[in-house]
Amino acid sequence: MVDGLENIVFVVEDRPEDGSLDVLGLYDGYALTERDRYGFGEVPDRIILYRESLLAIAADERQLRDEIHVTLVHEIAHFYGIDDDRLHELGWA
Question: What radius of gyration, in Å, describes the C-alpha atoms of the chain?
Fold first, then answer.
């Protein structure tokens, strides 16, 4: 478990709504840094992994596991308010 990661669901979908294979994952919610109030009864945030996109870039199972790991770290970072520029600096984009 990741400290502070609560009220979030993890979902696997085939592809993004636009049908492309360009996006591996998505954080759908409000980052902790953007919440002015948050409490009981809130709809959970979502981290979505796109199965076909991940499979399209992975040559084998090991690479697929690595891509899933990187994608999860990237999307969980968005939950904590870390943007793509900072993730790139840290090597997670």
Answer: 14
